[in-house]
Give the backbone structure.
Amino acid sequence: MAAPTAADVKKLRETTGAGMMDCKRALEEAGGDFDKAVEQLRIKGQAQAAKRGEREAAEGTVASYIHANGNIGVLVEVNCETDFVALNDDFTEFARDIALHIAAAAPKYVTEDEVPQEAKDAETKIFEEQAADKPEEIRAKIAAGKLNKWLEEIVLLKQVHVNSDKFEGQTIAQILTATAAKVGENVKIKRFSRFVVGE
C-alpha cells in the first residue's frame, strides 16, 4: 500500500482535528481506509482525554445564549487548561452549543454527583411504590431503570443534545469527551444559570 497522500492527511486532519503525524500514522495503520483511520483517531483521542481528566482546568470561557423571543437566557462556564485553548474555535463553539442546549432542555445539575442523595432516595421510593404490583424479584430493577431515566432528564452530562442533526444522538458527556480529544486538553462544564422570564 502506497504512503498516504498529503491531501488525504490534510482531509483527515480537518475532519478530526488530530495532529499531522497522528493522521499520517492512522492512515498507514488503516491501510488507506479513511473511515477506519477516523475511528482509530477517535478511540485514541478519547483515551487521551480520559488520561487528561485529572489535570486542572482553570482557564476557559463563559458562553451565553438568549432565545429568539427573549424569554430564556443561559450563562455557562466551561473550563480548559490554557488560555490558548480558551480562544480555540472548537472550544468556544462547544461552549455555545452547551448554552443553547441548557436553554432548551432545562437541566438542574451538571453531574449526577451534584444531585442530593435525599432527592434520589425520594424518587426511588416513588418508583418502588409504582412497581409494587410487579413480581418482587424485578421491582428493584424497574425502580433503578426509572431512576436512571429521571437522572437523564435533570443531569446535563446525561442528556442527549437537543440538536440531533449536528450531534446525532450523542450525550453532552460524549460531546465533551470528543471536544477534549479535539483540543488536546481537559475540558469541564463547571456551572450554569438558566433564566426564564416570570420564574
About this structure: The chain has three domains: 6-52, 59-111+155-196, 116-154. Residues 34-52 form the longest helix (19 residues).
